[in-house]
Amino acid sequence: MWNRRAQRARILAERYQGERLQNLRNAYPSLLDLVARTGPPALSESARELNTTQLDQLIHESWESPGNFSALEFFARAVLQPYAASFPAGLDCPWCPQPPQAGCLRPQADGLAFDLVCALCLRRRPFPRTRCPGCNESSETKLASFTAPEFPHLRLQACDGCRAYLFVVNLSLDPAAIPEVDELAGLPLDLWALERGYYKLQPNLAGI
Ligand SMILES: [Zn+2]
Ligand SMILES: [Zn+2]
Predict the structure, then answer these.
(1) Burial tier of 80 (Cβ tally within 10 Å: 0-12, 13-18, 19+)
(2) Which of 80, 126, 182, 192 is the most buried (most CB within 10 A)?
(3) Which residues have CB less than 5 Å away from ligand 2 (the ion)?
(4) How many CA atoms lie within 13 A of 166 on its CB side?
(5) Domain for residue 133, yes or no?
(6) pLDDT tens-place string over residues 61-112
(7) Whole-prediction pTM value?
(8) Higher pLDDT pick, 11 / 79
(9) What is the distance in A from the centroid of ligand 1 to the CA of 106?
(10) What's the DSSP call for residue 86?
(11) Helix (H), strand (E) at residue 157
């Protein structure tokens, strides 16, 4: 059964990658046009200069070797996110094993369950709440939490073992929150952490 599952996963992965990556090209013109018109200056300039071949290459690189964030990777991630999000349950996207975009606390029974959010497909997976997703440190003395009064549902979790941090969005305090969106709002906390020598486990779509 396990072999059949593995084989099935490979078949699905190939089918999705082969056929559906081609379909992503349909999204190029509208993405480039939108960013050229409404993006911040540097990004909109890139949108005007990028051609289909370059975009193909960016997307290919981002898919094959995740984790090398550059300003241009914004375009690859913008195209790939909805594609990766449509993967069937159980089929990881190439970024799933990479550092997560954010953490998420959600009400469950009479407590809170902790999930990590994949930076590309944005699907959530359970993870031990008191462990650093960067280095697996679980000593309480190494893990610190920071909050700011203006974002009561956001918590910055920093690790003194590997100096990584990520945002944890508490859905019990704001049920309407969307972790990958709300963490973008935490910029003042980002700056605070960066000034203290922490680095973000996974830069978001805005490159922060
Ligand atoms: Zn994923
Ligand atoms: Zn760590």
Answers:
(1) buried
(2) 80
(3) 132, 134-135, 137, 159, 161-162
(4) 29
(5) yes
(6) 898 888 766 778 889 999 999 899 999 988 999 999 999 999 999 999 889 9
(7) 0.86
(8) 79
(9) 19
(10) T
(11) strand 154-159
